[in-house]
Each structure stands twice: as structure tokens, then as C-alpha cells.
Amino acid sequence: MNSKEVMQAMVLEKAGSPLVAQQLPIPQPGKGQVLIRVNACGVCRTDLHVIDGDLQDAKLPLILGHEIVGQVVKTGDNVNSFKSGQRVGVPWLGETCGRCDFCLRGEENLCSSAHYTGYQIDGGFAEYTVADARYCFALPDGYGDAEAAPLLCAGLIGYRSYRMCGTGIRRLGLYGFGASAHLIAQVAVYDGVAVYAFTRPLDERKQSFAHSLGAVWAGGSDELPPEPLDAAIIFAPVGDLVPAALQVVRPGGVVVCAGIHMSDIPSFPYAQLWEERSIRSVANLTRRDGQELINLAPKVPLRTSIHTYPLRKANDAIQDLRQGNLTGAAVLIP
Ligand SMILES: [Zn+2]
Ligand SMILES: [Zn+2]
What is the pLDDT averaged over residues 22-34? Predict the structure, then answer.
């Protein structure tokens, strides 16, 4: 491994403040862990919620970042799944108890003792990170490091949200056409599902981006699509979109809220929910979701649209994501 003992990292010292460049000791892998040289790490909207203090269980100081692609450089005891030199991906789900009712039911995404990468466990906005090998994924060869990074959260959470829409859907609405939506739109098109993209009103750049990925219709979130939809996924953290989305789904249709945080949902008449429409949220991911999406990606094939930034420019990437400037995903390169 690298002989130097310190690494560059971008650190959140307290909520509400920009990340700070620091030199920190390179962490060492404990039992069951791998030490990873980070080659790329995506920036996710959840990172904004941690920075802003919307999510309050962060360890501080904290290295954010849960879409990590890198190379194993050292393995701790009891690691048989990965070897030094192998490329791995590290997602948001960092650790679960394996014993609670949720874990035993295959709902490890709901484990109450879970710990999350870049939230309670230091993540990938750094040159090195350690991760529990049982929660890492091998990645398909056809993807470069930066191209693979958005699959690890935008892709996985999007995929779980898509599954929650049920089988047999023919028309799918996507609210907020960012990193997740641009990937799930491709999965839906691959499945023969018609995609309807809802962006901020008058955001023609994102609407034409959606069309370029196969959306049959793109418009503002204040518009009605030409026909009722079977399901809608809300990726934008905007509670007002819940009643808006209920108005575009057919009787029996589902509205899935994919984000970890959302502004308050305004009250709305019961008639909008009536006729067996439902609203549900999606929390985290299971390793099964991850493996399914990673297996599916080369078949579609999923193309990730990325904007790369050097690690030290992490605050610029965060700002661009916050302002909705990006078509696709922001990725930091150490
Ligand atoms: Zn558990
Ligand atoms: Zn994420």
C-alpha cells in the first residue's frame, strides 16, 4: 500500500457550514473491513440534507460521501470476499445488526441499529476510506470509476423506488429529473414503460435531457400529463409535489417518495387519495436491491451522465447540486 500515512479529506465540522479540507491519518481496516483507495465518489442530495442539519444523526466531524468507487488496498482479518487490487463500490447502507426482526425478514433497509456510510461512518470525500466488506459490491467492468459512482445511491435508491411502483406499470411519472431519475428513466424505457418527466416549471434544459433519455413527455411539475399515470416517483424534496402527483395517477395508482427528507406535505382533499391511490416512502436500500441494479446496469445498458470535480472543489459540486444546475450526477475525484 501507499507508504504515506496521511490523506486529504473534505470534512463537515458542523451542520450549516462548508466542508473543510483537512489532512487526516489514513484509517486502518478492522476485522471484516477493507481499506479502499477512493477513485471517485458521487455527491447525493442526502449529503445536502446532512450538511443542512435536516438529518440529525450524523457523527461530527464527518467525511460525507456514500457513492464510493475505489480499489481495495488492504484487507482486515476475516475478509474473504475481496482481495487487494479489486475494484469495489460502497453504498449508503454501511452496517446492519443482522438479528432484528427487520433484518431477519429481509428488510435490512429498516434495521433500527443500521449505520450509514457518510453519515455515521466516514465516507468517500477523501483519498481513502474503510468499509465493512459484507456491504461492498463488485462493479461491472464496462463502467469507469466516475461513471459507476452514481449507480451506488442515485441508481440503487431509484431502483428500489421503481420496484415499489409495482409490476405491470405502463406509464411512470418522475418528479425531479436529477441523478436518480436519469438512471431510472433508462431502466423504465428498457422495460417498455412510458416515462413522463416533471421538472421545475420552464426548465427546458432538464426537459430536453429527459427527452434525450427516452421520455415520451416532459413538462413542469405544475402541468398535467396528457393521460393518467400508473405510478409516480418523487425525487425532489418538495412536499407540495405529493398532492400534485396524486392528481396525475389513475385510481389504484401509487405515489412513491424516494427522498430521505422532504418539506412538509400540505393538506389536500381526501378525494385526491380516494379510489385506492396510495402514497409510500422508500428508505435506504437492501444489499439485494444493490446487486439487482448492478446486474441490470450493463444489460440496459445504463449510461450515467456525470460532472466531475476535483475533491478539493467539493463545495462547488454541492453548490451546483443545490442550485439544480446539473443534468446528471456530480462526482468528486480525489
Ligand atoms: Zn437489524
Ligand atoms: Zn444518496
Answer: 98
